[in-house]
Amino acid sequence: MSPSAKDPTSQFRLDGKVAVVTGGSRGLGREIVLAYARVGANVVIASRKADACEALAAEVEQETGQKALAVGCHVGKWDECDALAARALDHFGRVDVLVNNAGMSPVYADILDVSEELFDKVIGVNLKGAFRLTAVLGSAMRDAGGGSIIGVSSVAASQASPGEIAYGAAKAGLHNLTKSFARTFAPTVRVNCIMPGAFMTDISKAWPQAVIEGMSHSLPLGRLGQPNEIVGAALFLASDASCYSTGSIVKVDGGAAYGND
Predict the structure, then answer these.
(1) pTM, to two decimals
(2) Which residues pair with 252 in a beta bridge?
(3) How far apart are CA 75 and CA 81, in angstroms?
(4) Choice among 36, 167, 244, 258 that is catalytic
(5) Which end of the chain is less congested by CB atoms within 10 angstroms, N or C?
(6) What DSSP letter does each residue of 181-241 carry, written as one string?
(7) Is 36 a catalytic residue?
(8) Distance between CA atoms of residues 52 and 72, nearest Å
(9) Where are the alpha helices (DSSP H) in the chain?
């Protein structure tokens, strides 16, 4: 009998794996980085703020003993995505897990306030970077014999909102990328996506209490998510526990969205 048959929780381990997490220095990305390191993975922490990545890398190594590489990267820029992939592969010799978590959702008072530059930036950070990193690192994983790629989208991908039009379109595109790349890299590399709802991350500190209460009352679970509550889905999709899942959109939203697409 295999160890996993005796102890099903062993399937969630990532011992000896290397995981790249974009938008990894804060919020949901930070929780995913810490969780992966705590179950045995070495991690590459990427975000636009290199100093924040370095601080978390030091924390990871001190707490878990796992190796952590900090990389400053603007995922909306193609060449920086290529540089991130090259650094991760050169440093660790392999990448087993990629989490495309980086994202941005600008606030605007009127749709005409969304400039071409801002629109391109939203699409770049939320969609273009995920495409390029998945193409490059997914190809490397396929050549190496396997891996897992995880997108992080949003309920805005399926629940239309006048305040998140470009963002919602980009995240809906991420759902399509998930399904398309799942077929592109099958059967070696699995590609799935987490669809979070509203979480109490750093960005929520700017939300008025009345807004938080209003959103909470609209949810079947009656509250917003805590950042660490993303960890279960992130571990499941990265590990052998999800070995028969690909092309899936996994909701972690307190019941906000009615469908997966």
Answers:
(1) 0.94
(2) 196
(3) 6
(4) 167
(5) N
(6) HHHHSTTTEEEEEEEE--B-SGGGGGS-HHHHHHHHHTSTTSSPBPGGGGHHHHHHHHSGG
(7) no
(8) 9
(9) 3-6, 27-38, 50-64, 78-92, 116-123, 129-144, 165-184, 209-217, 231-238
Instruction: Determine if the peptide bond prior to 220 is cis (ω within 30°).
Output: no
Q: Residue 149 is which amino acid?
A: I
Single out the residue of 161, 202, 182, 197 nearest to residue 242, CA to CA: 182
Q: Can you state the angle between helices 78-92 and 129-144, rounded to 10 degrees?
A: 30
The pLDDT tens digits of the residues spanning 50-92 come to 999 999 999 999 999 999 999 999 999 999 999 999 999 999 9
Q: Which two tokens stand for residue 247?
A: 């092309």
Angle, in degrees to the nearest 10, between helices 129-144 and 165-184: 20
| pLDDT tens figures, 5-64 | 678 899 999 999 999 999 999 999 999 999 999 999 999 999 999 999 999 999 999 999
